[in-house]
Amino acid sequence: MKYFIFLVSLLLNSAFVYVLGSRSVLPLPLGSFLSVQEGVWQNAEPVDADFNAALRFDALQGKVDVFLDDRLVPHVFAEQENDAYFVQGYLHAKFRLWQMEFQTHAAAGRVSEIVGEKAINFDRNQRRMGMVYAAENALAAMENDPQTISAIDAYTAGVNAYISSLKTSDLPIEYKLLGYQPEKWTNLKSALFTKQMTQTLAGYDRDFEFTNALKLLGEENFRILYPSIPDSLYPVIAKGTVYNKPLAVLNPPASADSLYFKRTDTIQFVEDFKPNPSNGSNSWAVCGNKTQSGKPILSNDPHLGLTLPSIWFEIQLRTPAFNAYGVSFPGLPGVVIGFNDSISFGFTNAGRDVKDYYEIQFRNADKQEYWFDSSWKPTTRRLEQIRIKNAKTVEDTVAYSVFGPVMYDKSFKTDLTAEKAYALKWVAHDTSNILKMWLLLNRAGNYSDYLEAIRHFNVPGQNIIFASKSGDIALWQQGSFPLRWNDQGLFVMPGTDSSYMWKGYIPHEENPHAYNPVEGYLSSANQRAADTSYPYFMPGSYEVYRAIAINRKLASMNYITAQDMQLLQNNNYNVFAEDARPILLKYAIKEQLSAVEKKYLSLVESWNLMNDPTEKAPTCFTAWWDSLHAEVFNDDLVQDKMSLAKPEKFVLLEALQRDSSFKFIDNINTPNKEDLYQMVTVALKKAAKKLASLEKENKLEWAKYKNTTVYHLLKTNAMAFAREGLMNGGGNGIINASQHDHGPSWRMVVEMTSPTNAYGVYPGGQSGNPGSRFYDNFISQWAKGMYYKLWFMESAAIEGKKCKWKMSFASK
Amino acid sequence: MKFIVSAIITAALAFGLGLYFPWWTIVIAGMLTGFFIPQHWFLSFLSAFTGVFLLWGLMALFISVSNDHILAKRISMLVVKNSSPYLIILITALIGGLTSGLSASTARSLLNLFKK
After folding, report:
1. Phi, psi angle pair for B45, to nearest 5°
2. Which residues sit opposite A77 in a β-bridge?
3. Cβ–Cβ contact B80 with A under 8 A
4. Residue of chain B minimizing CA distance to A34
5. Does the pTM exceed 0.80?
6. B65 touches chain A (CB under 8 A)
7. What is the ipTM of this complex?
8. Residue A2: which pLDDT band, with cuts at 50, 70 and 90?
9. Under the phi-then-psi rule, with left for phi > 0, alpha for psi from -120 to 50, and beta for the rest, what region is A432?
10. pLDDT tens-place string over residues A769-778
11. Rounded distance between C-alpha atoms, residue A575 and residue A527, angstroms
């Protein structure tokens, strides 16, 4: 008996320790995970937590006082500029360490180290795109500039000062959840972060899609389905602007007609992990004679994937050289979108195509040589070692050509042959120091300082908006944009010949820009920057409708206040539907509709065109139009083991406005010739089925259908850390660009009065800790379209006392 | 009395070890009291169980209350798909209690093998 008791006890005990201490049986090691002294309980921050602290670090040169206000926004007052970056690094790490490391691991293709084999393809994709190579080039440029390197060194030291102070029990929850430890921060990680943003904003292209579509459809049809300029374009720079003559007229190579425009084959493989084409933004500035205060107002809302922890961290940095407030990127020093004592600045994505593919001819499968300018040239090879959690390291050899990394070859996309491969030419690989722009913008006092600052920015191309207390407004589309002959880079180019290479970049001063325009306002919303009179070929992925909505409003507004601008950022008017609805209503054959279908039609008919949260009509309209789009194009574009792109929504709308017998209406798979009446009616019938099932689930209301969700960075693996079902309106193509998991990641309105009158909000919270009350405390405010007044502290001595907490940093 | 002392000592040892060492040192706490405090093996189990159950349960409860259960609700959702802070506190306490209790009974019943 006693043997039995001992054995049972021993077995049970061993089993407990084994099951609770490892991940082999349960997905989580519940013993350490729930341990009160070591596990997640240690991350439960008391709601009345005390953030006061007095810290000493060798690396500091002077004193730094940090005042934390009741929203946990740090106001950093530093005696030395670099100390401010040290403290910013420390604070970023204190509140956002896991996110900083995860995002830069993702940039570097190191996610498999954390989550295991399921991320191998993602990691290979990142590395083959040359993300680490790009970051190394960026770091080399940063190291060449004394101002940048001292800022980034201080920042990195600050992050590491925090990491060194961490005990196991202090680790952010995600480390405990996934079972790993943070490593030291490096300058390269900051460079990687800039490349992650570049990939998000300038990593979208449709070269393979267009190459295949051109071959399948022929050139005439290709131009119809993928036009480069919408009829309804409202360019960033006003129509009618006179541009300088181009420096040189570029002509396509003599062989282009046969080798480039008339390929004989499609490219048989499918790309993965493409960035979301909705990544974009709104920004505008109005000059003093349109505002009530007589001073300019600048507004900006960048549209990105909505995540917890947020991509943004609010901060004020005050140094002897400048006083800046705004949002920063955890991972980089400085204020990224914001204002200082004299100016304000914001960004929208230019959407220009700065990424091309070249078809490479390898000599054989070992990828050592490729055919270029009539001889075999050697590649250089980069060995990528992808470490994998609970599995052996995977090695991947990436060949580098004169263009850049050979991203797609047979070793990665097995549908390709051993000889034919695709090299990537991308501005992101250039040696450049974009951080310098922010270091200079933060201290810029006027328009010429702004011009000097943005000169350092090459990619991702941005529309950089500017307003100053002295009354100026300006906007430059800034970046390195390739000089191209017409249609160069729309399709995959031959890589056997130097004549297809880029011929440099469009000179900076020729980039589209405007300064104090007569209209009294400037705006950008990811539309094409200029109309056809711009003398350079500017391919890209552009939005159409937000720009129309914004320009209409700004043109008619006067005596504008900061509150008016807030309302405009939250405007839900659907400009696209204004033009699209008449077509749906005109061509629907009412006699053929059931009672239910008629009901949805009449909802669309009586709609006020606002995508408001409780409206049912936006859901009906969207389902109906999407259904029509699919009816019209799905028969023509059959995806079979190749990349193809759906035509954009303006294409169908404008085609139908021009001509109701648009040639793609006919379904090529039926003997009959369908007309628009039939298509619109069938589209409604199909949409009605979907709408009826939504209605049954009580999800017909726009906000419920859209289900705006701020996911944790681990997406559906951590829904307990997400916020679902936000009641907000807006959508794709609407000024309030809130989609399901994407939208205004920061809304800011800055009135350039003295003192500065600024407002802002982002859908998250300052703390990245799901156990903190500051984790998601801004979300409800954001969803309601409300703002916080931004407290731009002038004096530590007087205003500091009004702050809740004070952290003082000093050298030892 | 012995039972209560044994529970308190186990809890104190578990807490002290937990300040410096990983969670599984509650096994050591259980074994030490199981080994040195002579009791029926089941009382060894029960006293260590009670000690660490209360230690972990009360600490988790205290932490969670001062956190307004923000994190407990999320962790409960993550682990048992149910947003119930008290359930996750109970699970925490049971994990600690059972692990330590079984260690105590293992130690005590091992000792019993050599007793005449």
Report:
1. -60, -50
2. A65, A318
3. no
4. B92
5. yes
6. no
7. 0.97
8. confident
9. beta
10. 999 999 999 9
11. 14
